[in-house]
Design a protein that fits this description.
Blueprint lengths: L7 H35 L14 E2 L5 E2 L15 H5 L3 H10 L10 H12 L7
Antiparallel strand pairs: 1-2
Length: about 130
């Protein structure tokens, strides 16, 4: 006697489980890319001789977007420590927001720059 064909509910349930697993894997790849960029940037010191790698922004839908190509913002690239230190206040705040770096309104500029540099992997001291 032939087996009953799988019903549509069973197939959809299996597809849902596979989709959840793929989303988890994608999230882990984003995490790994972020850590790899940070490690690379640590080896660049000031970034003057070897520019920093850009770390993509995490989008609410789970995707990523490079700061230089971000739709909503026209941010300057952060290729070295000097570029980070020379950010306009509005751009600095936008980077902190886009990277989900905690910042309180009472933080001074130097602390904001230190937090951004730490996130990016820049170990070069502020001037």
């Amino acid at each position: 006697m032939p087996a009953d064909p799988p019903n549509l509910m069973d197939i959809n349930q299996h597809l849902h489980v596979i989709d959840e697993r793929l989303n988890h894997i994608e999230g882990r790849l984003v995490d790994m890319n972020e850590v790899l960029c940070q490690a690379y940037n640590q080896g660049c010191r000031s970034g003057a001789e070897r520019p920093y790698k850009a770390i993509p922004f995490r989008l609410p839908d789970g995707g990523v977007e490079l700061p230089e190509t971000a739709r909503a913002v026209g941010l300057p690239p952060l290729r070295d420590a000097r570029a980070i230190e020379n950010l306009e206040d509005a751009d600095l705040n936008t980077y902190l927001l886009q990277y989900n770096i905690p910042r309180a309104g009472n933080l001074n500029r130097r602390t904001k720059i230190q937090r951004l540099k730490a996130f990016l992997g820049s170990t070069f001291p502020s001037s």
